[in-house]
Amino acid sequence: MTRTIRVLIADDQMMVREGFSVLLNAMPDIEVVGEAVNGREAVERVRELAPDVVLMDIRMPELNGIEATREIVADARVETKVLVLTTFDLDEYVYQALRAGASGFLLKDASARQLADGVRVVAAGEALLAPSVTRRLITEFSKLSDNPRLAASAQAQAQYGELTERETEVLVLIAQGLSNGEIAARLVVAESTIKTHVSRVLVKLGLRDRTQAAVFAYEARLVTPG
Could you tell me which residue ranges the Response regulatory domain spans (predicted)? Predict the structure, then answer.
């Protein structure tokens, strides 16, 4: 039997929480196990319930979604993935939330199928970025490309220096938004081989998923916008 994906919904609007709960509980492989009305409660509920995925609103009282995401990702006791929900594809906090450890983004007007598929993708350890949000992310990197804080630090250089040439190549292609299948086709190798490379990249860099790997590649200047 397929394992049920356990979801926590964190949003300060009751109608949003109830609406998402109804949509997700209608799926045979997804169960909403709890709700939170602010970021602080989201962190507490994650520690209590250990859900597979948190649907996290960014703008919430007491503790916003970015800080809540950072605390959840930093907690070694849980392996919960965070899928951030935003009202606007031009959300100014997209980049910050990705750096905090969010595994992906969805717009709040996503269809029931998109919402469910998004939860499944993130629960499986993949990255999920709506195309419009990806464009926003690249735009933000472009704006910040001359910012000294995005220069490759000695630590970052040391980290990616541990990667093999092929692993570095795979990391760059991840940052360019390619799937495992697309990377395999590009490098003319089996997809299972790419999965192995991706796993090694994440372990060596101490990253949780492909989204963090993409952010790392940009910040280490292995990839440049455009």
Answer: 6-123
